[in-house]
Write a structure and sequence with these properties.
Length: about 220
């Protein structure tokens, strides 16, 4: 098998699928960075993307001794590989930052725990265990036992930090929204038509984003 045969495996008819996955990954990355809460883990998409990264990395190893300048397709493969890797790294860092900030909230809420991958759940448990041990050795051990809990809800006030669902986001309609969008707690209601861009509370467009009718930008 020569260089042209190897490169043909990752080019040609596979391009449309790769382009589609790249668009989906980019949209998931932008949405995750913009939303104040942890969103669903896109398991099918990430499985395809990680398999593609692994496959293309193996191709690079097979042709590692060849100067990329002598084969334009090799340059394309390397560029595409780096683009996928950048998006995946940034996407994962964004999710980890949210887990760090709201680990206890995620772990005590089954609906939000279900939005994590298995690795993220393991990380959240490890993070919270280490954080609790650090707090206990630093100062919690000096408090009465009744005041040492990090998930205390005494007096109707929860110590668990939650995402701010009223955070402002930039939202663009991907299609006409039939029902008016109501901003809870206000008398504001508005309609969104395809292509419209609004700055609005995340809570007002959350379900529309999750359903794919609206995207964050």
């Amino acid at each position: 098998m020569d260089i042209d045969d190897i490169l043909a495996e990752v080019s040609g008819e596979r391009l449309p699928s790769e382009t589609h996955d790249l668009q989906d990954l980019t949209r998931a990355w932008v949405t995750e960075r913009s939303a104040p809460e942890l969103l669903n883990w896109p398991s099918a998409l990430m499985e395809r993307v990680l398999d593609r990264i692994h496959h293309q990395a193996m191709v690079e190893e097979q042709v590692g001794n060849i100067d990329p300048k002598t084969n334009f397709r090799l340059i394309i493969i390397q560029t595409e590989l780096e683009r996928f890797k950048f998006l995946v790294r940034s996407f994962l860092r964004t999710r980890i930052a949210k887990i760090d900030k709201h680990a206890l909230y995620i772990l005590t809420n089954p609906a939000h725990s279900a939005q994590c991958s298995e690795s993220e759940l393991q990380y959240a448990h490890s993070h919270q265990t280490l954080l609790q041990a650090h707090y206990h050795s630093s100062f919690l051990s000096q408090f009465p036992t009744s005041l040492q809990r990090l998930d205390d809800t005494a007096g109707g006030i929860s110590m668990i930090e939650q995402p701010d669902l009223d955070t402002a986001v930039f939202a663009r309609a991907l299609r006409d929204i039939e029902d008016p969008i109501i901003v809870e707690g206000t008398d504001t209601a508005f309609e969104m038509r395809r292509g419209d861009v609004y700055v609005v509370r995340w809570s007002a467009v959350r379900e529309l984003v999750l359903s794919g009718d609206v995207e964050l930008i």
